[in-house]
Each structure stands twice: as C-alpha cells, then as structure tokens.
Amino acid sequence: MSDTTVDIGPQARIVARLAHGVREDQLDLPTPCADYAVRELLGHIVGLAAGLRAAGRKEAEGSDPGPGLPALPADWRAVLPEALDALADTWSEPAAWEGMTRAGGLDLPGAVAGLVTADELVVHGWDLARATGQEYVPDEAALRAARDLLTMDAPDAPDAPDAPDQDADGDHRDGVFGRIVPVPDHAPLLDRVIGLSGRDPAWKA
C-alpha cells in the first residue's frame, strides 16, 4: 500500500468542470446524496477538498462545521476550483502518501487517505453529473483507486480478491459507506464502484 500513489489532478479537474457546468437554476435539484441538493453537494465538495488537503499535508483538521447541511460559499465558483487545484497539488507530493495522517476524525495511513481522496472525487463527481444532467467519464486511475478503497472496506464485495457470492439483499459493511447496491459483475467499472459506494447506478432525479 505504501507504494501506491494516484495522480489526483485529472479527476479534480473533471469535478471542477462539472461544477463549472452547474446552472444557478439547478442548485436546488436533488442529488443521489439523499440529504443534499446540488448546493449542499457543492458545499460538501468545497469542505472535503480542504479537509483532505489538510490530511495530505499532515495538518490538523479544520474546525468541525457542526450539525446541519454544508453551506455553499457565495463565491463558490471561484473557491471550488481553487480548492480542488490545491488538493491535487498536495496529493502530487510523495510525502502525502507516506506515514500516518487524520481525516474525518480517523487516524489512517497516508496511502489510504489518498485512496479516500480519489474515491470522494469519483463518487461525488458522479453525484454532481447525475443530478445536473452532465456527461461523466471519470479518470481511469482515480476510478480504479476508488474501487480499491471500496473493496478494501468491503472484502466480500464482488470486485474484491477471492470474494464470495454477494447476498441477495446486498452486503453490509462497517464504516462510513452504506449498504452495497448489487450490480452485475459484467457492468462497467463505474457502475460497480457506484454500487459499492451505496448508490444505485440507475438513479435519476
């Protein structure tokens, strides 16, 4: 794991382009994140970019935003791409992937935090694209990293090495991810990753 690194830059730029494509009249549309409209999803991406940048830099996490939905800064169209650029720059440094760090209130290896970063960008990129009707083709390396993280968290998932058959009603796993949505083994990798993240690849607004 310590030898695993992923270039976050391409996927960060994809998410930035998707955000740029969001119209003002789409900010209150629903998203695959049940509690988030598009504006809260964008606010969450701003926050996670800052938090995962801090994790890559081995810095203390920022203040807890507290209860409630993520707020979208008024100047988000400038703030969000800058935050994503800074995130990608941080994870381009080999030191970000080494040692231990802290993210989301958890202590974890830097290499795992890097996979978390790739996964967050891949899955939330899909959320944003699906909610706003934009085409979405994630970066292949980031997509594979997301798969690696999600199968690490769910060793009995179909994509995991030596995985047993999945239960008919979907698998559970501990941690921050929800119930796995069963997806056919022959489905595209993006659909399988989205199912592993607890989302239905067929979701529509």
Q: What would you note in describing this structure?
A:
The model is unreliable at 160-175 (pLDDT under 50). This protein has a single domain (9-196), classed as dinb family like domain (Four Helix Bundle (Hemerythrin (Met), subunit A), Up-down Bundle). The longest helix is centred in the middle third of the chain and has 23 residues, at 110-132. With 205 residues, it is mainly α. Strands 1-2 form a two-stranded antiparallel ribbon. The relative contact order is 0.16. The chain has helices at 9-20, 38-56, 76-91, 110-132, 140-153, 189-196, and strands at 100-103, 106-109.
Sum up the structure in keywords.
mainly alpha, Four Helix Bundle (Hemerythrin (Met), subunit A), 205 residues, two-stranded antiparallel sheet
Helix-and-strand structural type:
mainly alpha
Distance between the termini: 38 Å
Instruction: Report the sheet with the most strands, covering strand number, pairing sense and barrel closure.
Output: 2 strands, antiparallel
Largest beta sheet: what is the strand line-up?
1-2
Tell me the CATH superfamily.
dinb family like domain
- What is the domain tally? 1
Question: Beta-strand percentage?
Answer: under 5%
Say what the CATH topology is: Four Helix Bundle (Hemerythrin (Met), subunit A)
Helical region count? 6
List how many beta strands DSSP finds: 2
Radius of gyration: 16 Å
Query: Could you estimate the helical fraction of the residues in percent?
Result: 40-55%
Low-confidence stretches: 160-175
Mean pLDDT: 88
Query: Which overall shape is indicated by the principal axes computed on the Cα atoms?
Result: globular
What's the SSE pattern?
HHHEEHHH
